[in-house]
Structure formats: structure tokens, C-alpha cells
Amino acid sequence: MRFIEALFDIFTNPQFYKITLTASTPLIFASLGGVFSETTGVVNIALEGIMLMGAFFSVVFTQITGSPWLGVFLAIPIGMGMAWLHAWASIKWCGNQIVSGAALILIAQGVTGFLMEPIFGQPGQTDYVGKIAEIKIPGLYRIPFLGQAIGQINPLVIVAFASVFATWFLLYKTTLGLRMRAVGENPEAADTLGINVYGIRYFGVIMSGVMASLGGSFLSVGEVGNFRELMTGGRGFIALAAMILGNWNPIGAMWASLLFGVSEAMANQLQSSPILHVPATTKPLFNMFPFIVTLVVVAGLIGKTRPPAADGIPYEKSE
Amino acid sequence: MRPDSRIWSFIVPIAAVILALMIASIVILLIGKNPIVAYGALIKGAFGGRQAIADTIIKTTPLILTGLAVGFGFRAGVFNIGAEGQMIMGALIATVVGINLGGVPPVIAIPVTMLIGMLAGAGWAAIAGYLKAKTGAHEVVSTIMLNWIATYLSSYMVTEPLAVGSGTPKSPEIAESAKLPPLLTIGATEMTSGIIIAIVAAIIMYIILEKTTTGYEVKAAGFNPYAAEYGGISISKNITMSMAISGALAGLAGALEVMGVHHRFLGTLSGGKGFDGISVALIGQNHPIGIMFAAFLMASLRTGSNEMQFVGVPKHIIMIVQGIVIFLVAADRIVRTILIRKKKVGS
């Protein structure tokens, strides 16, 4: 029963909830990116690569400017550029969207690894460049349990949750959102109505670059203050799973990201639990946990969600 | 040359590779190095001497197989991005069995170890195939998850139950009888006879795809699933089977790495060779013969890139080249448009 005891210990520790939020934030950003892109009908598996670029370049720009916030903002155009490449290949050239996404992941892994030595003088990981300071939420941090969990928080976490509602509002309460959904469901009909199908799709994909870049920046200058090679570690794909599980809806994607965040936090806390005394050698088994959860969830629930009808299908104007 | 002519399946990948190398040379210039020196080092590293050529051929072997794995998947309409994990599982299980085949003669031990590796890869891939067929779970997401699970599982296996020695986590050596005899020995380098097996696998795949009913069904299901189903081909059976065959090839790549090269399981054994399979398949246009040449090309880039490190160009440049090639093959109309426009200007 040590296991139950350890679980109880974890669940009653406010730190666990804080770690859950931290683990969920990059997933929330990136899954919103997926929602933006796929709502307009373009599959974007390049999220993983764009996150990696965001993580790397926010560290580079933090190093240059001395400000982690500037680092995060300056990395966004890089993410947009990557996303634009994907949009260009998928929309203008009707390329295979999954293959193009895979290509961009490789390019991101190559570019970040390649620039490490010329910029930071060493491969593997960069020096600590500084990170975004946590803020105390007035009043909240005084409340006993809640205060320890969310009273002092990374402002990017708040940005992530705000983005969820902003995205929801944009998609379901504005004309632009209606057009985006129309283009993703039935581009021919949207085109007939005079909607600029290509323009809307470019917008969706490039916004996914903004979001994924933010998610990546959170991993580096948000959380740890440096960049490690391949530090995204599959989170772009977990974010895609969160988007699917959330039924391509921003709010749903947020809940799914939180679920995956919980599984990551749990794996993380269980392996360092003072009650379980997990030996260092069995720790890899705990690292498998979030991936198993994702696999099971995707397999178990996918039939019950539905992607936009034209998702992944290039649109060609008939002459 | 019409834009839809068959000749494009040769021209597009070759042009993509050349374009990618040109773009990469700009990247090399940007960090203040000379691309001619860099590419010179690359060629020297890959082909400069018998040892280098042997290294390139050793690296070609798993890439042919992972390329075939991904290529077969593409032909059947599935994107097996999980060759990495299947290769790890193939190598891991082949090691576990290979260690325990001490008293068995090589005639039995070698095929058994190979077969076990293939089964392990097939089983691992079939999970994703089955999930896609039964629940619609996209194989890209599920195979990536399976990759990570395989990575952590294997790193657990070589730090705990199978671990020997210190330093890099590794398993004990497999039994002598399960080792593949080297094709030839050059200095300290044993050139694996796995290359023969890889080439045979490519020929078998060619025959299956082009000359058998099964191959026809696989291609039909990949080309147009709805029409194929109407024509009496079971799509869900085909998806699971295609993934399993694809995984078996990747598993074989892993098993041969253990049996012919490392003789044990190492944490770094797969090292991206599964992902390289994607590039190999796309450059080879999913054709078994094309895949063999593409694997050789990719292996040359990999071997040569180590030499590039010595002239101050990080070997990650090869990943950038690979990424650009895949990007251009994905959107092959870019390449066609560039070439057609050039031709028009020229004439």
C-alpha cells in the first residue's frame, strides 16, 4: 500500500498542482496552435519543430537582449516563419501536409543543433540565460492550500489560459472565426460565398506558429532558463493528441492538455516520492507514463470526436 | 517534358537533393565556414579510403531496411513515423533471445534471432495499425507515442535487468552463434553481411509489390481505400497487416545492427536511423530499388558528416539537408515549377 500512500501524499501536496499547470502550459499553447491550423483545414504536425525553434530562439534572444520577455516575443516571428513555410507548401503547392510537417521537424532539429556551437560555444545545452520571473497574485497567495498551488505563478501560464478563451471567442463569436470554420468544413462552398480560402488558411497556419512558438518558449525561458537539444521531447505530438481529444475545440484542448499535464506531473512526482524510494534505474519506466496515457486516450476516444471535414485536404480552385 | 511525366519520379528527388545541398551551403557560409571545404570533408569522410567506404556500407544496411519499412507503409497508405521505435524493439528482443542461444548452432541461431527481431518490430507496429483500423487513431500520433515508450523501455532494460559493465548503458554480448559472420574485415572494421540481407529484402519487397496479388491489394488500399473496399479488399485487415510488415522490416534493421555490428544492445543503437528511413523512402520515391540508392546516399551523408565536424561544421547540417529534401519532395510541384521555368528561360 506504499503506492496508495505515495499517491495520497502527492495529491495533498499543493506543489503537485503547480507542476501540473507548468506541465500543461506548453501543451495548451501548442494544442491551440493545432486548433488554429486544423480548423481551417491544414494538418500541422510541425508543431513539435516549431516549439523547438521557439524554445531555442527565445533563449538566443534572451541572451542578446537580456530580457526573457523580449526573448519570447522575438522568437514568435521565427515560429511564424516556420509555419509560413508549412502553409506555403500545403496551400500554394498542395504538398503532402504530413510529410511537409515531418520535414519541418527535421529542419528545426537540425537548425537548433547546428547553431548551438556557433552561438553558445558548446553542443548539448546552453548556459543559463535567465527566465521569466513568477508573479505573486495579490490576495490569492495568502490562502493556505490554493495559495501555494497557484498563488505564485509564471505569467505565461496565465497567458496560456487567456489564449484558450481568446481563441474560443475568435472561433465561435466572430465573423473571422465563422469563416475559418467554414473553410475547414467546406472550402468550395466558402469560396463560392466569396471567402478568401487561401488567405484564411494562411492565417490559421501562421497563428499555429505563434502558439507553438510560445509553447516552446515556455519550456525554455519560461521554465528552466536554458535550452537543451531536443528539449520538446514529443510534446508537439502530445499537443496534437490533446487537440484531437478536445474535439478540435480550444476549451476541449485545454482540458485534454491538463489531463496530459497531470500524467506528466504524476510521473514526475512518483519517481521522486520519498515514500516509494524509486531507484534511479527504474526512473525511465515512469517517463513512459505520459506517452502510455496519450496512446490509450487517443485510441479509446478518437472515434467519438470529429475533425473538420476538409482537414488535411489541399484546396485547388477550379479554373 | 510534361509536368505529369513519369520521369519526374527520378528528377524530383535528385533535384531536391542538389537544391538542399545548395541551401545548406548558404547556411554553412552564414556561420563563417567555407562550404567547398565542408563538402570536400564530407566526400572524404564517406569515400576517402577503404575504411570509410566500409563504414558507409555498414551505415547503409539499416537505412535500406528502415527506408523499405517507411516506403512500404507509404505504398499501403499509412505513414509509419514509428520505424525508430520498431527498430529499437527489434534490436532489444533480438538481443534478449540472442544472449540465450549459446548452445544452438548458427544455422538455427541466426535465422531465429532475425525472425524474433522482425516479429518484435511487427508486433510493435501492429499496435498502431490495429488502433487505426479499429478506432481511427491516427498512426502518426500513435507511432510517435510508441517510439517514446520503446525508447524509455529499452533504456530501462539496459540500466537494470540487462545491464553490464559501467559507462554507456549496454547489454551483455549475444551468443557467438547468433552473431552474423562479417562479409570482410578491413582493419578494425568488420563489414556486416547484413547488407546482403537488406538487399535481398529490397528485392523481395519489389516482387511482392509488383508481382503478387497481396502487393496489388496493398497498393490499391493505399491508393484509394474506398474503391478498394468496394472491390472486396478488407481495409482494416490491410492496415494492420501493412503496419506489421512495415514494422517487421524496421525490426529486422534493429536485429541486424545487434547481430552484425554491435553484438549487443546499446542505448544509442537506433540513433535516428528509423527517422532517416522517412527521408530514404521519400528520396527513393517508395520504390525498393530507389530506396537502396537513397539509403546509400543518406549513409554517405551521415558518415561524411563526422569528417565535417573536424572542419568546424556541426554534423546537424545533414539534418537540415534531409529536412529540406523531404520538404521539397512533399511539395514536389515546387521543384517541377523551378525546373520547367528554367527550361523555358533556357530555350
Estimate the mean pLDDT confidence of chain B.
89
Quaternary state reads heterodimer
Largest interface: A-B, 52 and 49 residues
Task: Report on the biggest sheet of chain B.
Answer: 2 strands, antiparallel
Q: If strands are numbered along the chain, what order do they take across the biggest sheet of chain A?
A: 1-2
Helix count from the secondary structure assignment of chain B: 14
The total of helices of chain A stands at 14
Supply the CATH class of chain A: Mainly Alpha
CATH architecture of chain A: Orthogonal Bundle
- Indicate the percent of residues in helices of chain A: over 70%
User: Order of helices and strands of chain A, N to C?
Assistant: HHHHHEHEHHHHHHHH
Q: Sheet with the most strands of chain A?
A: 2 strands, antiparallel
CATH topology of chain A: ABC transporter involved in vitamin B12 uptake, BtuC
The end-to-end distance of chain A, rounded to whole angstroms, is 70 Å
What is the alpha-carbon Rg of chain A in Å? Answer: 20 Å
Question: How would the blueprint of this fold be written?
Answer:
The complex is a heterodimer of chains A (319) and B (347).
Chain A lengths: L1 H10 L2 H26 L7 H19 L2 H25 L4 H24 L14 E2 L7 H8 E2 L1 H19 L1 H11 L1 H6 L4 H28 L10 H11 L4 H22 L11 H5 L1 H13 L18
Antiparallel strand pairs in A: 1-2
Helix pairs in contact in A: 2-6, 2-7, 2-10, 2-11, 2-12, 3-4, 3-5, 3-10, 3-11, 4-5, 4-10, 7-8, 8-10, 11-12, 11-14, 12-14
Chain B lengths: L7 H23 L4 H13 L2 H26 L7 H17 L6 H30 L3 H21 L24 E3 L2 E3 L2 H18 L1 H11 L1 H6 L4 H28 L10 H11 L4 H23 L6 H14 L1 H15 L1
Antiparallel strand pairs in B: 1-2
